[in-house]
């Protein structure tokens, strides 16, 4: 009788533990959901936003504009799509003020040089720290103005030494280049990259934005277009980890040598014009 009672108590305790465990897991999921499912910030009525795509390098190009003043900028254009982008800008009746890069890319050639030829109003921009040439070399905290809108330049090195994030606080959006990708990040084994530096950039700059800021990366390889600070803080499989874990992950990616790097980096040092000169001489 006594052993039956002991067994019954043990079973009760086990059932209670399972119940408590389920309640804990459910409340953890609920907390995570509250953290990541944030209220979206709406675009202003006079703010134009278009997300364009290059399927070869999985690069996103962003067209931003002031609808009233009709001034626009392009972020991370790709040379093969310069005509597409110029046509869209002309069709919308916009004037392209700047073609801007988040960093000196190694996987595609920038369209900035070609866009300057197609749309002579356009001037190229990249960070001074990138080591590339451009009409305007950006310094930390500079503002890129188009109409009444502006992007602030925030250094976020780590993928390359010259990587920056462009943030528009009014619209609650940031363009993170390869520093932060959706559920990932750029590699850190070339172009002066450093895992510890990238981790610090993300945690001290990008993760300091409000949770509902939308983040637009330079690439996505699985069709996702946008994320938020809240989502990445919880679900980024690399950057939600400790610094030591992150460095260990990055050191063990075993990625192949970048296919385009030997062609793209020299071209991107001069706004992609290297490629144009080659084409002209053919
Ligand atoms: Fe990159």
Description:
The protein is elongated. The chain has a single domain (47-274), classed as 4-Layer Sandwich (Metallo-beta-lactamase, Chain A), CATH 3.60.15.10. The protein is 34% helix and 22% strand. The chain has 282 residues and is an alpha/beta fold. It binds fe (ii) ion (FE2). The site of fe (ii) ion has 6 residues, from loops.
Number of helices: 8
Helix/strand structural class: alpha/beta
- CATH topology value: Metallo-beta-lactamase, Chain A
Helix content bin? 25-40%
CATH architecture: 4-Layer Sandwich
Provide the domain count: 1
Give the full name of the CATH homologous superfamily.
Answer: Ribonuclease Z/Hydroxyacylglutathione hydrolase-like
The small molecules bound here are:
fe (ii) ion
Indicate the overall shape. elongated
**Beta fraction of the residues?**
15-25%
Distance between the termini: 96 Å
Strand order within the widest beta sheet: 1-2-3-4-5-6
Q: Mean pLDDT, nearest integer?
A: 92
